[in-house]
Design brief:
- There is one protein chain.
- Helices cover 45% and strands 28% of the residues.
- It has 120 residues and is α+β, with helices and mostly antiparallel strands.
- Helix 1 runs antiparallel to helix 3.
- It starts with a helix and ends with a helix.
- Strands 2-1-5-4-3 form a five-stranded antiparallel beta sheet, with helices on both faces.
- It has three helices and five strands, in the order H-E-E-H-E-E-E-H.
Length: 120
């Protein structure tokens, strides 16, 4: 039941913008809880990398006196990967197109993360 609700939140998030290509909810230890990913992406790989990057971002923010980590943004020539906490035990990862309107995506991701945190 909870997995279905999490998948529903992701489906709604992906539907809010044509720029969002994929999304997933990952436990902080790297296990995929729910995902709306294309066939060519491996859920386990996405989960492990998301958890690792957020952990590294946490440590970087602390070590460089930047405060509490809010999000990690990776920009590549084929698009963006945005990771943010969804409560204390989960990470929301979103993949977006290279020409994405990031302001709108940040807002939609924040709202989805709050909904996810309420369920977990």
């Amino acid at each position: 039941m909870r997995a279905e609700m999490l998948t529903s939140i992701l489906s709604e998030l992906n539907g809010t913008s044509a720029d969002i290509e994929a999304s997933g909810i990952i436990s902080t230890d790297g296990l995929m809880m729910a995902a709306v990913l294309p066939q060519n992406l491996d859920e386990d790989r996405v989960g492990a990398m998301s958890a690792a990057m957020l952990s590294l971002g946490d440590r970087t923010a602390q070590e460089l006196s930047r405060g509490t980590l809010e999000q990690v943004l990776i920009k590549g020539d084929r698009g963006y990967v945005l990771m943010t906490y969804a409560g204390k035990e989960a990470v929301l990862t979103v993949m977006a197109k290279p020409n994405a309107k990031l302001g709108l995506i940040f807002l939609d991701v924040k709202r989805a993360a709050e909904s996810i945190a309420g369920l977990i």
